[in-house]
């Protein structure tokens, strides 16, 4: 028997023996275990200071042994090559308590390698087999179901003792997929362990709101049949205690009991109901009363009617007089005199009781209405404004009533709330106003989407905010409604600044400007310089009155102080005026203009002298070339312009224009549809008019007009011949997309403006054959052929819409219903049965209709425009019109594989543009889009997609780019223009990281799209302006007129009027030449000799004349400076690059300069210097001057005239023979002697032979020449070149002989 005193020594001895065996197994050249059954490499997770635990995958395979473990292990491939060489010594057991005992679990296989791979996660295994895996396994073994070790499969796998085992399909080489694995875990033995804790016992106290004690217990048990003395005792306590508390004392009412019976049956009484207080303690009481009393029995007790009727007798309810035998006849019409059928007629005393309906002639008869007294009648009809009309009184027993109903119109916001900036404690007024029929009378205001309490703010259509707090900053908008619908205003942002906080950051922001090509800064070699700029954000300022709807010009953060600096360009100094300090100033308010040209959609024929309407007001006329210019008021939020052709050649086309309040001017190329040739139809029979006529395709639908449907404006039925013209804008023809009226939006019941997806639009024009009077129709059917609806889910939601020409918003006319009908009519060769959607409408005031569905699968597409193909973030263009055409989701037409469904345009800002589009999450190619960009009428070029797709150029990373299938318009045909691209609109998967960074954003993530950083994915356009450069000493961004700074050296002295001046320079020479204008102050004392700026432009080849080009060079116009005090005649130097010589000067220009002294000296033939003329000279002088309210427009017009060589024309093709001011000759230098590289290219054999002979002569070797070999040169150079080479060889030989003699 072992003595108890020797037991500790025995245990220590056994532990040391086990540890010694383990260490002996671990020693084999420092990194392998020396054991016949163990071949393994150890993971870096056991090495102190090593990398991540999963950097090298290691598995242990063993059978249960008593003292040693037979272990095998495979080295698995890892994705981190640097970890492959890591080795450490493996220690078999890590705790002396587990010496000699190991256990393996059973095999687990809870996943199969379908989908992404095979995942045997430890967390999932514990979920299914809670008691079969220990808390901290010491090793893991993995094998396939074919019993192949993981290390022998050649697959890339991962493991972790904390996470388990996993294999990912896409990581496997050669397209393999993962095997099906099962795993098991090695667990340390546990001889003595605690059982799970029991549940907490009850609290020792039962009184409410008291504190007591809870107890829970566990037991120590042994899992091994070992002697008691060898079983270690469990560590820890067998019981735990914690503090507990009972719920607080409560008192709660039971539900109310039922109401008791009323104390009376009529005339007014009372009834009672009761409830009981349920209390947890006598110390608390229920608030309120145990009983409630309610009035009841309010009906009148039977009494004698006291109504006295002068005629007839009281009605049963004693509410009005009824005259038996008396009749009321009514006639209800529209404002155009058309009878209104189906209108409801009711007495105003009982408005909910409909007494009768009007018949097809708009008439009704109502009996019992006394004629001796006036009675109020309420007339109601859907989509019309309700009216109340009084009957006329007489003594005949018969009375008449005539009512005219106007069409109901949804409300439309005409005055939107505007942005405000205020200090804390100030006040602000936000205004909102809407029109509609009936006029909206209820307004609601929202702050950050939350409805404001009307009782607290006492608002109507205006919202007054006083004693402003910081938390009142945010977004405000109003919502108004009438019987026809609701509308929301655009949001206004209120910014509240804490008192004492600076309204404007005095430190300027970084603003990099590009330096001239020949300016290289020493040291940095940078082509950019930080000139600084102010943020131009709005600030509070000092308003004369702060309670206006609009703060006038308002205040913005602007330039307070500038400083003069000199940029070191290496060979010269370049002056610049940099921003030193910013402060709050009155905002620069540029004149907002919308310009454009209206042309036919089929052949670009201009709409000459067309009428332009905004709302009901005519605001202008298009020019002879279809051009127009509109000045927009500063408070305009939505601009709806209607173009009407007085000659009736084109359909009336309402357009919703986007405009830019910062750049001042936006150019729109407007397309209008030519009217279909009118056909004669007989109004006395049913007429069928096809909608959509494309060769080889069936019509999309039909217009079915019943007999006797046409009427004149006075309501008279028209029976003569009708001239019918129905123009269909067919989505199967993509060229018609730009001619779509309105902006394809509608307003839902909540007042939000949402997009529509069109299946076709049509304009109707019915006229009297003789008088040409416009005719209306009664009920008309519209049939839509379901075979053209490629997305079947659109069929149930298809609706018929009409366009409100004043608001540009589409409004619902009717739903569609299914019908199978026999079709025929004009243009149909046979009659056949088809399934149609049928909608009903009446043609009254509106003449534009639409077959649309609301589409909720929406996204945003991020697009940016750049100054050049370098795509520099600092060279983004603002004011670019980006247009996106949504294409048909499925191919289905032989004439055009994909039809268009929507057309949208957005203006780029400082962070690009986000275009709304339809997208699909299931199929990447379900929707596609065609995207273009226009700046001032000039089409920008898209990033190329061929010959090789470059994600860095396109702006979208892989693999998302492949999914979007980006293709520029010239992808398959290089002869096509490069000004558009096509993409798949694949909705991003938010669980895929590669698709969460743009360029497609879910519709609810508009803010993420608008605020996306410039390095996020986006599509790109760039301006094709190679070899053009502009430098201003006072920096100014022409696409943001608010950046203008009042300074003597400002290129543009007036922010409201911009004068652009160009001079035409002709070049004789084989190559194009860079021409620079250097612009200095000339006569003004503040600017004399100081630089305004530099302009560089490369000459443009004249395609009609060989070896001739010309350049239109901008120069600083003479005139008043920003202080409007004195004229400065700018000193202009024109310098062509290279060896050029001035050979002629325009005689009229030379004469003008002599007659208007001072005259600049022109002693150098390679340049030309002049004091710029003050007068706006024309093409006869070679000077082109244009004044406009926008600098870009002024320059575009002047350049067009300069290219054309006229004072009123426009051309993009250079005409070097017309309107030239200066002519330079720039001949190409002749090569007098070929270089070694040129000789190797022309005659490599002879050149190499000559080189070999020269080398041998230098070494003193005599070479016997069998014949003279001559290197061929051009004839005019041969003699001179050979003589030079001979003399050179002679000098080399003399030098060699002298060296040998020495």
Automatic annotation (TrEMBL):
- Which domain of life does the protein's organism represent? Eukaryota
Q: Which residue ranges are recorded for the region named Disordered? A: 1263-1302
Instruction: Note the Pfam families from the entry.
Output: CILP, CILP_5th, CILP_8th, CILP_C, Ig_3, Mucin2_WxxW, TSP_1
Signal sequence, start to end: 1-24
Q: Where in the cell is it found?
A: Secreted, Extracellular space, Extracellular matrix
Gene3D superfamilies reported for this sequence: Immunoglobulins, Thrombospondin type-1 (TSP1) repeat
Keyword field: Cleavage on pair of basic residues, Disulfide bond, Extracellular matrix, Glycoprotein, Immunoglobulin domain, Secreted, Signal
Gene Ontology CC annotation, any one: extracellular space
Report the residue ranges that make up the Ig-like domain in this protein: 411-495
Instruction: Enumerate the PANTHER family for this protein.
Output: CARTILAGE INTERMEDIATE LAYER PROTEIN 2 (PTHR15031:SF0), CARTILAGE INTERMEDIATE LAYER PROTEIN CLIP (PTHR15031)
Indicate what this protein is called per its UniProt record.
Ig-like domain-containing protein
